[in-house]
UniProtKB/TrEMBL annotation:
HAMAP family to which the protein is assigned, alphabetical: FtsY
Originating species: Undibacterium aquatile
Similarity comment text for this entry: Belongs to the GTP-binding SRP family. FtsY subfamily.
PROSITE patterns membership: SRP54
Name of the protein in question: Signal recognition particle receptor FtsY
Bilayer topology: Peripheral membrane protein
E.C. designation(s): 3.6.5.4
Top-level taxon of origin: Bacteria
Pfam families registered for this protein in UniProt: SRP54, SRP54_N
Keywords: Cell membrane, Cytoplasm, GTP-binding, Hydrolase, Membrane, Nucleotide-binding, Receptor
Gene: ftsY
Amino acid sequence: MFSFFKRKPKEEPVVTPEVVATPASAAIPTTPAELPQTIAEPAAQPVTTTATTAVDEVASTSASAPAPQPEQKRSWLSRLKAGLAKTSSNLTTLFIGARIDDELYDELEAALLTSDAGVEATLFLLDTLKKKVKEEKLTEAEQVKTALKTLLLELLTPLQKPLELGRHQPLVMMIAGVNGAGKTTTIGKLAKHMQVHHQSVLLAAGDTFRAAAREQLSVWGERNDVTVISQESGDPAAVAFDAVASARARGTDVVMVDTAGRLPTQLHLMEELKKIKRVIAKGMEGAPQEVLLIIDGNTGQNALAQVRAFDDALQLTGLIITKLDGTAKGGVLAAIAKTRPIPVYFIGIGEQIEDLQPFNAQEFVDALFN
């Protein structure tokens, strides 16, 4: 189950081995003249919203966070099932009236590969399934289907991990991804999730190459009543550094740093990402505490290549899978779990704020087999 941790009152700061206490005045600008001049201030009146999250359990320190309504939960699950319907159909129809023989296993192998599960995860699931069928003496196709569902759940469960809030002040999140993965939109949705859990948020428009990216992030900032730090041009690492310094001076809970989209094969741009991460660390020891990769769920096995490349460069702490609607196959999570098991914090199935929800392995597997 997921649990989020709310920041404790300032008079009782959270102190953990991962956090190095730093005097509030140390190297932090405190006057308006010292603060970055490219800060877009939020509107005077907060934006109201009815969006809630699908968090099933909330830690006692954030018990006041709104709980998901039953109808919203049902709506989310039905949309998730609809998004994964194609893969679900390919997997489940194999077992209708089937005999347990080599032909069934061959068809199952093809179905898993077609769903983007990848060769390694597919062979692992098939080999383990065959052993399970033999050891438990399974004779019915429905029993084999249930066994496969159990194995897939066991494979995906390690990816389910909560994004913990309140352990760092501020929590600095660096967010990367290729062009078109939905990175900037996802940042806007995440900002709303943070606010639902009583966290103040600051956004850094680190994509200094595209004016449209800065404008899009500014729109999300206005919509969520969140401050956005940006520059028309210049070094994205400097924007990130200014954002961290400003957040520390203001007592902001979460800093989210957008970065320019890039392909993992663009080595000079990957080096720039490494530079941004190093500069953020200079602005705050231990930061960024979270390095997230946004992945388009429709990119298939290319998504796995992205995970490997960005993880090698940045040491990723979490993933967010977007666009798991309609044409997405979903099996890529199995490939990730088997080859590079990085936590999947959130999955997205649409454009609305409520369409981004914490990853729950049981819900995901149920959607694939029901």
